Amino acid sequence: MKRLILVFSIVTILITTNHSTVFAQTNAVDKKISLTILSPDKVKDYPGREETIKVRVTNNTDKDIHDVLVYITMADIKKNMTVNLEDYSADKPVFINTLKVNESKTIELPIRFVYTSDYYLYTTVTSKEYKEIVSSDAIPVEILGNTKIDKSKVISVVIFEPFVLIGGIMLISLRRRYKYKVV
Asked: What is the per-residue DSSP string for the chain?
């Protein structure tokens, strides 16, 4: 019994005094390239809206970064899926030959919103030189439906249309019945 208590005490002491730190992911400060959406901060409009997303790309390293690609990514949060940006004319990335040491560049990425839904739009940057992919914080995009339907008219049509159809069918069948009985 004394051995069990001794072993338990030693294990407890070792676990509580072990202060080794585990790094599972690099910190945002350690990223080689940073990316920030400058404008707009949100979009709320109808389908067909064209927007230019302005982004600042910054080299955080002490050497030049070559072959940098900056592009838009969107997620449809109503459907829980990513968006095919070909439909939005936003599938072509902006290519930067060289991003010099501590240099920042402002990039404009055009997009045309075509479908009604709620989205998160964010921009992404990568380099052929590094295997690091960095995305900006997302901006909310709400594309509204452009139909202006009066609910009271819809309800009245939904309720009365079946009665009108049934009445019309009954009227036609009665007319046929009397037409062929007389002859």
From this structure: -HHHHHHHHHHHHHHHH-------S--GGG-SEEEEEEE-S-EEE-TT-EEEEEEEEEE-SSS-EEEEEEEEEEEETTTTEE--TTTTT--SPEEEEEE-TT-EEEEEEEEE--S-EEEEEEEEEEESS---EEEPPPEEEEEPP-----HHHHHHHHHHHHHHHHHHHHHHHHHHHHHHHH-
- Residue 97: half-sphere exposure toward Cβ, Cα within 13 Å: 0
Yes or no: say if 102 and 58 are a contact pair by the CB < 8 Å rule.
Answer: yes
Place of tokens 């046929």: 176
In this predicted structure, the answer to whether residue 27 has a pLDDT above a threshold of 50 is no
Mean pLDDT of the chain: 83
The two structure tokens encoding residue 140? 């909310």
